[in-house]
Amino acid sequence: MRSTTKNPLLKVVILGDGGVGKSCLMNRFVSNQFDEHSFHTIGVEFLNKDLDIEGQTYTLQIWDTAGQERFKTLRTPFYRGSDICMLTYAIDDKMSFKNLEMWRKEFAYYADLKESNQIPFIVVGNKSDVSSEAREVSQLEMETWCNENSITSCIETSAKSASNVEEAFKMAVQHWLRLESRADINETHVNDTVDLSKKIGDSNRMSCCVGGGAAGDDDTNN
Ligand SMILES: Nc1nc2c(ncn2[C@@H]2O[C@H](COP(=O)(O)OP(=O)(O)OP(=O)(O)O)[C@@H](O)[C@H]2O)c(=O)[nH]1
To answer: Phi/psi at 128 (nearest 5 deg)?
Structure first.
């Protein structure tokens, strides 16, 4: 995290296969617009957006990356220094869901993560507006994969209908805050030898949200 003159600045990277809707998610969140004919991203693009959480304003610097394999060398240099990673798939594209593992590994390698839980990973299943016939990944599959991979935040969104998009970014920042507070407590433990072996807060709780409901704020979707 860096600090602008006013607000804490968080670098958020959106990853996932080409065509899952990364650019549309960013544009929906930042400008509340949706482009039915969005072009493939080449390399990376970023936009800033302020987000208020519990009385504090955070400036999110959102990096939209190119999902196509041929742009790998253009996107990977931008992973370092990230505070949050959003792993995105489209619920009507099974292969994009299967590729989440590849995306996580690519990010961890190029961001040079020392531990897998060093920063929050958020799983985002986009295009939740598609018909049930078109759906190829169930909510249960998403939650199961997250459980198996120790990812505690997942959400289904639609950039098209604006469902859960702001909630996804809120969920990401809330997850980041939980990790930060845990890091602070651990630091206290190291410095002051305070016994904090008891369970800390809810940092390991699953926080999932699907469909059109609100997410994250009250953790009622666990
Ligand atoms: N139905 C539906 N279509 C969407 C949604 N989000 C994006 N799309 C469509 O999916 C296509 C790809 O969207 P993009 O945002 O360009 O996808 P991307 O992941 O950024 O793709 P790359 O730049 O190639 O990595 C476009 O035709 C969008 O209109 C959504 O929530 N629902």
So the answer is: -70, -5
